[in-house]
Amino acid sequence: MTKHSNETGRSAFPMPALHRREVLALGAGGLLAASGFSARAQTKAAPPPPAKPTGQVVVGLSQEPTAFNPLMPGIEVDETVWMQVFNTMWLADPQGNLMPDLAVEIPSEANGGISDGGLAWKVKLRPGVTWHDGTPFTAEDVKYTLELINAPGFKSRTRVGHALVKDIKVTGPLEIAWRMEKAYAPYLALLSNTYIVPKHLLEKAADPNTAPFNGAPVGTGPFKWGTRQPGDNITLVANEKYHGKGPYLEKAVLKYVPDQTALYAQFRTGQVDLIIGTGIPANFYEEAKKLPGRKVVMIPNASLEILMPNLENPVLAEKAVRQALYASINKQAIIDIIYYGTHKPTESFAPQESWAYNPNLPKQQYDLAKANKILDEAGWKRSGSGVRMKNGVPLEFAVSTTTGAALREQCQQLMMQDWQQVGVKMTINNMPAAVIWGDFYTRSKFQSLLVGTAFRTVIDPDPASRFASDAIPAKNGSGANQMQWQNAEVDKLLKAGQETFDQAKRKEIYWKLQEVAREELPILPIFQYAPIEGYKEGLIGFEPNINARQNTWNMGVWYWAR
Amino acid sequence: MSTFLVQRLMQALVLLLIVSMIGFAILHLAPGGPLSQFAASGEMTQADLDRIAEQLGLNRPLPVQYLEWLWRMLRGDWGLSYRDQQPVLHIIASHIGATLELMLTSTLLAMLLGAWIGILGAIKRYSLFDSLATIGAMIALSIPTFWFGLVVIYVFSVGLGWLPSGNRYTIGDGSFLNQIHHLIGPCIVLALVSTAVWSRYMRSSMLEVVNQDYIRTARAKGLPERSVLLRHAFRNALLPMITITGLHVPTLLSGALVTETVFTWPGMGRLFLDSISYRDYPVVMGILMFTAVLVLLGSLIADLLYGIADPRIARNG
Question: Which end of chain A is flanked by fewer CB atoms within 10 Å, N or C?
Fold first, then answer.
């Protein structure tokens, strides 16, 4: 993180003064962010990093990274590898500011990188970067990456945003330009998660889907691919020719421990230095805080735990029903009793740390009398069995979630009790993960779901793929609007939010959108996740980042204080 | 003998075909699929999911998918994993070493201990030792492995700090002693249950033999008790054990689902579990066929050995 990058980061996104100072402190003071979680994590002044990469860190993961081509289908845990081996053109810091990485500056309308109303893009790339095999990195690699994503036979993970790119031109060894089919502001964020792959290696493969590269990736990142023991660990080694800061560690081991309790035990006994990702189970939080030589932190996360109603379900389609249900969820009991007080209640689909978050939404109150009143007024009459009826239809629906998710199952029981008191009959219909997240979810075959999910585009607040009426898979849409929300005003807001690059204007749009969602309740938000991660004392540089897919995002600058 | 072999091999091939058909059908007919895990996060759109399903050939009719799989299999192509794009045989090979190490040590331990307890129990039937062994075996058989595994970790790793709480070796230290140290925990857990099983088999097998006429004859001849037990009784008691051992061979290579998960042991059992939960069809089918072949081979070898060990068993095929 050079001073230069702060300057450009600032020019890309206007930041409030406080953030700017923090970012400057980050650049000047080296590795310690002066704010937030890392401030709590690191209290003493840190010793300087070693002159040459030394030592190793063992990162404990409860899922196994198995996809190593960063453009192909993968899950969040796979990003722990991608982040080390590859680079993106820019990435977001914990405050949400984009920082250049393979690019020298973030394209914006102000610096001319984005012009023609958002249709023309131009990026200048960083000189002196080499691939791990010594080949220089050029604009051809970026062009190849963007083209590969859209190549017909290639199994790319997602083409959202990328499909709009056309006329890619290499205008110099380190300069690239392209045009967009329409102005699409979230593309900046999407590119912060698009890792650049080497043309010279993938081009040679007969089929990039099965290239040897996919099993032994070569990138430009702080760590090089080392060895893999399938089902156990991946060892990465320091790239001493890295273009950025670090790496300070000689080796980084990504260790897979399949069971969360077993993972926590290994953290306790010291076999893993860190637990990230799914984190430490909530029931061990109190104990973990007291472990000697370990630091345990609650980290911000953009995922929400929600009740997702299927709005095509005759009962749940009625707004009054959703409002009554929402008023009779005891959020505080769910968080305090079931989740050991580890997550934070929320009203919005946007994470509370986002610049687009609207803090002025009405607070949900657990109020059974109010819920009863809403249902009475909406014409739902109590029948002999206690279940409300309207036009011969009972107020009854099923809540589904993953079998074996003990905390969610308890949450279902709590909801069931509360809803019974307002004359709602809730049934439980749980299924194994591979079943529930298949067609049942994507094709909206559920009545309602208890699910943890996010409503943004990478780090951009745009929730169009979740809320737009043309994004309903069950109606031949191509998004992830599984609740099947259709709202003309929302569609208009979503479109406007994508078309402008002006953050102030976008903020206004998304504030309005959050108000509409709070009123209409297409999702019933319960809490925003704050998972618990832990690390050994003496590890310097660990800095949770809500805008990174994994908290190994800055592993290049980690080192041990000894 | 050779006609017997040919006959058995033909039967095995038909069985394998049936196993593959049923396995393939059940696996694919179960709701959900390999793309479920991508859908949950909401990051990939339906268009992306549909495109990948198309590229993987998942949207074609099931019989077509099966025939294609079978055709590839017949040519020795086990396919590529959906999860990490590696050839299935390569993935199996990279997990089998860990499983073999764990299963072989625990099975050897269990067989030796089990045989000893079983024989002693049979000779001194209804003694205090026999009663204790019987009660112990019942307890060991009723303890759920995952619970016992966690207890071992809790007591010996977290509490006493004697054993590592899992893994096959310490990362960065792959020495022999380090590996043995890591082997102790899961080995004890696995051996506990198998010792109980083996001791029960051995005991009943031995009991059956010691009441036979030829043992009485041997004693009547005035042979020393030691010679009666070891040369006459034990050898005959081992016969049924051959079949059991033969049937046990597949588990040596297919691994232990629960213990491998609790102790973070990167073996076949965990590979199977992970592949199932991911719906990694090629790998699950690969493991299924691999295990089916082992089961058939194991019982064939047991039959052959049985014939060699016991000449009374005539082959009439």
Answer: C
Banded pLDDT at A379 (limits 50, 70, 90): very high
**Could you write out the three-class secondary structure of A365-396?**
CCCHHHHHHHHHHCCCEECCCCCEEECCEECE
pLDDT 10s digits, B79-138: 888 888 888 998 999 898 888 889 889 888 988 898 888 888 888 888 888 889 889 888
Cα–Cα distance measured from residue B34 to residue A100, given in angstroms and rounded to the nearest whole number: 35
| Global pTM value | 0.81
- What is residue A492's predicted lDDT score, i.e. its pLDDT? 96
* Torsion angle (degrees, nearest 10) of CA B298, B299, B301, B307: 160
Question: pLDDT at position A227, please?
Answer: 93
DSSP state letters, A11-44? HHS---HHHHHHHHHHHHSTT--SSHHHHHH--S
Edge-to-edge order in the sheet of strand A114-115:
A114-115, A120-124, A175-180, A165-172
Taking contacts as CB-CB distances below 8 angstroms, the residues of chain B near A58 are 171
* A440-444, B40-44, B167-171: segment of lowest average pLDDT: B40-44
Contact: A434, B150; criterion CB under 8 Å: no
> Which residues have C-beta within 8 Å of that of residue A30, sequence separation ≥ 6?
A46, A48, A49
Shortest Cα–Cα distance, B90 to chain A (Å): 10
Contact residues, chain A, for B30 at CB < 8 Å: 434-435
Q: How many CB pairs under 8 A join A and B?
A: 189
**What pLDDT score was predicted for residue B313?**
64
Cβ contacts of A262 on chain B, cutoff 8 Å: 153, 165-166, 261-264
Task: Write down the number of H helices and E strands in chain A.
Answer: 18, 24
Say how many CA atoms lie within 13 Å of A400 toward its Cβ: 17
A-contacting residues of B 84-103, CB under 8 Å? 84-86, 91, 94-95, 98
Q: In this model, does residue A60 exceed pLDDT 70?
A: yes
A498 alpha-carbon distance from chain centroid: 19
Q: How far apart are CA A155 and CA A144, in angstroms?
A: 15
Minimal CA separation from B199 to chain A, in Å: 31
Average pLDDT over residues B267-295: 89
B200 touches chain A (CB under 8 A): no
Contact A438 B39 (CB under 8 A): yes
B5 close to A (CB below 8 A): no
